[in-house]
Specification:
Blueprint (H helix, E strand, L loop, with lengths): L1 E4 L8 H13 L5 E4 L6 H9 L2 E4 L12 E4 L6 H9 L3 E4 L3 H15 L3 E5 L5 H7 L6 E3 L2 H6 L1 H6 L2 E6 L5 H12 L5 E4 L5 H15 L3 E5 L5 H11 L4 E4 L6 H10 L6 E7 L5 H14 L3 E4 L6 H5 L7 E10 L2 E5 L6 E4 L19 E6 L10 E4 H16 L5 E5 L2 E2 L5 E6 L2 E6 L19 E10 L4 E5 L1 H18 L5 E10 L2 E6 L2 E6 L20 E10 L4 E5 L7 H8 L5 E10 L2 E7 L2 E6 L20 E10 L4 E5 L9 E3 L6 E3 L22 H6 L7
Parallel strand pairs: 1-12, 1-13, 2-3, 2-4, 4-5, 6-7, 6-8, 8-9, 10-11, 10-12, 16-18, 22-24, 27-29, 32-34
Antiparallel strand pairs: 14-15, 14-17, 15-16, 17-18, 19-23, 20-21, 21-22, 23-24, 25-26, 25-28, 26-27, 28-29, 30-31, 30-33, 31-32, 33-34, 35-36
Helix pairs in contact: 4-5, 9-10
């Protein structure tokens, strides 16, 4: 019996598989060309040729017809060929492997920065030729002797950038790089551009060969990848390279010679990246018929990928930038899949700028999920890792009760509290420690919200923190109260927001404290409800009327900061002005006259007329409209003194609307009452003369 030791990575690599798939989709009977062999496998080439794909070496071989398509194979091509194809308006089907495209990007960027580009690989390989076409005057190193032959040039370099052919032997590349480093180039940027699949295939080839009595490598003799697997296996055990089933006879003879009835024959089976699975199946069937019953084992490859590169969520990785654009940053971190950090995940409170992330820059990030189907990359986050690092630093600062902040991530089991993370520490906030008073009714309302906490207990071994928001709230309230009572004094003007309106006034929040504005202090006018003046959730200025710290009471006034209606009215009627008013009431000492709503003034009986008035009723009655002049204003008591006689004409004068504008009046004959009278003892209108008329002065 034969135990066949193989690997699940055998067969077409993703890059070649994608190129072959695109070729099949675009084959349309002679109108589609492919620059070079799409795969170093005769079977694939033959199949695609039958489907109408024409394989050419130069673009001069293309017959220009409508809708001509040109496939760029997975090895990629030069920048000039791309430009020439565009100039001829051919439809380009670019099947360049993403790993190769990343190398082109690195080479282009560093060449633009005047770095000497050094390419490790086979100088005749199409991938190396394509990569070289993306920079000026590259140095291609295919062997250690090439380094020695160009040592003089290398010693003169001030800065250089090293990349490798993606299918180059990893061990060989490491030897070349080590030797180049000894030249001591001042600035040397080294990129590990060997394809992950290639690296793992080489690693598995070594492990398969170690477990095998002989190894079969299936693939084209023209395939760089296949030949490298053959070299790896040949260094460990007898190995054979077969390109098709016809070459299996010599292996069958060798196997039978080495096999013994008592021993299970172990045969290793490897395949290059361009080898179709159909050929691998044919080889296995041939062995089963001509050598012995085959038992296939892939146990050796199980877990190898995970041991080399784990994509476990939460794992920290370091990678180098291979591309940065407006969407984010792509990283190569050693696996078969690139990583991607979307723009919003690049850091904490930073404005993302692609120019800050040049190719080759090393970035540490954390894996946040499985491979994204759109980008075919592993999602990473630098922001989350930064938060973890910041959190770990914060833990050292909170041991003495200092406050810290977390984002609540969920509700603990049995609704016992809330949970979150602070760096690598899990945080638990018991239900009793969430509010300052009582228990929250809905814990879910806190999820995805920030919480300010203080640590009650820190367990470093289990990386757990028990924390309290209640303690923070109580301490903050006590501090606020201290500041509040320090500044809230009688007569101080403060700003507050109306929160509730009741029948006796309104409650106003000032820095979180409830203060009362009594309804009598809301307006100068009589109102039934404070809502006639104040709106809920609107902020106003108030004056502190009184405080009682022991009872926690503060009385505020709003009307006190508003102008009194009478003050406004008084401003319209300065001293000396004349207005028309209405008599609203009579008293023994005069009449009250309203000169506008809410503003009344007193006309003293002595100011009712030019003649002596004994009873005000003799001059006016309630409801009369009269002209009055403002004689005096007492702003403190908001009282106004008026005069009617100042608006009445005196002898020889005419009163106008302006009190200071007096005109002479014409005297009318026979109207002694209107004439100014001189004092005389016999004047019949002189009351003092009337008293003395019967007195005998001679006695």
């Amino acid at each position: 019996m034969i135990k066949l030791i193989t690997s699940k990575l055998n067969g077409l690599c993703p890059g070649v598989k994608n190129a072959v798939s695109l070729a099949k989709k675009n084959a349309d009977g002679g109108n589609t060309y492919c620059l070079g062999a799409i795969s170093h496998n005769e079977h694939i080439i033959e199949s695609l040729t039958k489907n109408g794909i024409q394989f050419i070496d130069t673009i001069d071989q293309i017959i220009d017809t409508p809708n001509t398509k040109v496939i760029i194979r997975s090895h990629g091509t030069t920048k000039k060929i791309h430009q020439d194809l565009k100039a001829k308006n051919f439809q380009i089907i670019d099947a360049t492997c993403s790993k190769v495209a990343s190398v082109h990007k690195i080479v282009s960027e560093f060449d633009a920065k005047d770095y000497q580009i050094i390419i490790l690989g086979d100088k005749d390989h199409p991938e190396v030729i394509g990569t070289a076409g993306h920079c000026t005057h590259p140095i291609i190193i295919s062997s250690l002797d090439d380094i020695d032959n160009q040592i003089c040039i290398l010693k003169l370099l001030k800065k250089a950038c090293i990349v490798s052919q993606t299918t180059f032997l990893k061990q060989k590349a490491a030897e070349f790089i080590e030797k180049i480093k000894k030249i001591h180039i001042k600035t040397l940027e080294v990129f590990d551009t060997i394809c992950y699949t290639t690296a793992v295939s080489q690693f598995l080839a070594e492990k398969v060969a170690e477990k095998s009595d002989l190894t079969i490598v299936v693939g084209s003799k023209f395939s760089s990848n296949t030949n490298k697997l053959f070299v790896v296996a040949s260094n460990i055990c007898p190995s054979f390279l077969v390109s098709d089933i016809s070459e299996m006879q010599k292996i069958a003879v060798y196997a039978k010679d080495k096999a013994s009835p008592a021993k299970l024959l172990n045969i290793g089976l490897l395949a290059g990246a361009s080898t179709p699975k159909e050929l691998i199946t044919e080889v296995i069937n041939y062995m089963s018929k001509n050598i012995g019953q085959v038992k296939v084992s892939e146990e050796l490859s199980k877990g190898v990928e995970e041991s080399l590169t784990s994509y476990r969520e939460g794992r920290r990785v370091k990678g180098t930038v291979i591309l940065a654009d407006e969407t984010g940053v792509r990283l190569n971190f050693g696996g078969k899949n690139d990583g991607i950090i979307h723009a919003e995940e690049m850091g904490i409170d930073i404005e993302y700028n692609p120019e800050n992330y040049p190719v080759g820059l090393e970035i540490e990030a954390i894996i946040t999920g499985k491979k994204d189907s759109d980008t075919q990359c592993i999602p990473l986050s630098k922001r989350k890792l930064d938060l973890i690092k910041e959190g770990d630093k914060v833990v050292e600062t909170i041991r003495e009760g200092q406050a810290f902040e977390i984002l609540c991530q969920g509700v603990a089991a049995k609704d016992s509290g809330l949970v979150g993370k602070l760096g690598n520490y899990s945080v638990f906030v018991p239900k009793s420690q969430i509010l300052e008073r009582g228990f929250p009714k809905d814990l879910k309302s806190f999820v995805k919200k920030k919480m300010r906490l203080t640590a009650l207990e820190i367990d470093d071994d289990k990386q757990k923190i028990v924390a309290s928001q209640k303690k923070i709230l109580s301490e903050e309230r006590a501090e606020k109260e201290s500041i509040f009572w320090m500044h809230v004094k009688e007569g101080v003007i403060i700003n507050g927001t109306v929160k509730r309106i009741t029948k006796f006034g309104a409650f106003v929040s000032v820095d979180g404290f409830d203060c009362l504005v009594h309804i009598t202090d809301v307006s100068w006018k009589r109102i039934k409800d404070a809502s006639e003046v104040l709106e809920i959730e609107k902020a106003y200025d108030f004056v502190v009327l009184s405080t009682d710290k022991e009872k926690g009471r503060v009385a505020l006034g709003y009307k006190q900061l508003q102008p009194h209606p009478q003050s406004v009215a008084l401003a319209k009627h300065p001293v000396g002005s004349i207005s028309k008013g209405k008599v609203v009431s009579l008293v023994p000492f005069g009449a009250f006259v309203q000169i506008e709503p809410g503003l009344e003034g007193l006309v003293h009986v002595s100011e009712a007329a030019h003649d002596f008035v004994k009873d005000i009723h003799q001059v006016v009655k309630v409801g009369d409209e009269v002209d009055v002049m403002v004689l005096a204003i007492d702003e403190a008591s908001r009282k106004i003194t008026l005069s009617m006689k100042a608006c009445l004409p005196e002898s020889g004068e005419e009163i106008t609307d302006n009190a200071s504008d007096k005109k002479p009046r014409e005297k009318k004959a026979g109207t002694a009452q209107n004439d100014k009278q001189e004092w005389s003892e016999d004047n019949s209108n002189n009351p003092f003369a009337n008293l003395l008329k019967n007195v005998d002065v001679d006695k």
